[in-house]
Design goal:
By secondary structure, this protein is mostly helical. It has one domain (3-246). 73% of the residues lie in helices and 0% in strands. α6 (123-143) packs across α9. It is globular and about 75 Å long.
């Protein structure tokens, strides 16, 4: 893998006005923002200074049970938690739709804004994959922190395989991703690290959202290209001569 080449190719795709990647990414970000705000509203626990004083007073007076009940009353309700869970599921499905759009863009398969909704054609497979992947990574993390990270890299290609191979079961996608990532986990880790500067900027208020207009399509397109080359759909060496001519300053 040539990470520099993949990132340069991703930039060329995004900067092509005909690709529409920035436009679709903006819609995707707006959907993400709406869901994020709604989730924060549902799950946010608001403790005023008066609440904190009352809880502290109850604890000091030995009324720990009442203090716990008081805090529980301020926590999100079961209904709010259920709605938030549904929001997370819907967002994961839309995220798959964004990947479908990028793969269609790379492959020249008539990408369109409607691709964002394409994940709703197989929502339960997407949800099951997310749950299974989270469970496996969690179990590996129980051993040590590092095995959990390694597991996360083993399963990174599963979502792409789920899109490309409807005949695969979710478990098969996990297994095939593990096979594909054998010998490539460190390589993908280095690709992740190459984005760390951009990722750091996204944490700043306001500026972070402006930065994400570029980083969201940039990161996602690069990772889609990584999958394309790893799966044999894209030959980076075929673009190498053009890359030398157009980006000689990168070499």
């Amino acid at each position: 893998m040539n990470n520099i080449l993949l990132k340069a190719k991703a930039q060329d795709i995004i900067r092509n006005p005909k690709s529409g990647v920035i436009r679709v990414a903006l819609v995707f970000l707006c959907i993400s923002l709406v869901f994020s705000v709604l989730s924060t509203y549902l799950m946010g626990s608001v403790f005023t200074q008066k609440d904190i004083e009352q809880i502290t007073a109850h604890i000091q007076n030995g009324n720990e049970e009442f203090a716990i009940e008081y805090m529980m009353d301020k926590m999100p309700s079961a209904g709010s938690r259920l709605v938030d869970l549904l929001i997370q599921f819907v967002m994961s499905i839309v995220s798959i739709g964004f990947i479908i759009f990028l793969l269609n863009t790379i492959r020249g398969n008539a990408p369109c804004l409607g691709n964002l909704m394409d994940g709703f054609a197989f929502p339960f497979r997407i949800i099951f994959l997310n749950l299974l992947e989270g469970l496996l990574i969690g179990l590996w993390s129980l051993l040590l922190f590092v095995p959990g990270i390694i597991a996360a890299y083993k399963y990174r290609m599963a979502r792409y395989l789920l899109i490309d191979h409807p005949e695969y079961s979710v478990v098969q996608c996990i297994k095939e991703s593990t096979r594909m990532m054998a010998g490539h986990k460190w390589e993908l880790f280095l690709l992740d690290m190459s984005f760390i500067g951009w990722a750091f900027l996204t944490f700043f208020p306001v500026i972070g959202w402006m930065v994400q207009i570029w980083t969201t399509p940039y990161f996602a397109t690069t990772y889609a290209l990584y999958y394309e080359q790893l799966s044999g759909h894209y030959d980076a060496s075929a673009d190498y001569v053009n890359f030398q001519n157009d980006h000689s300053e990168w070499l």
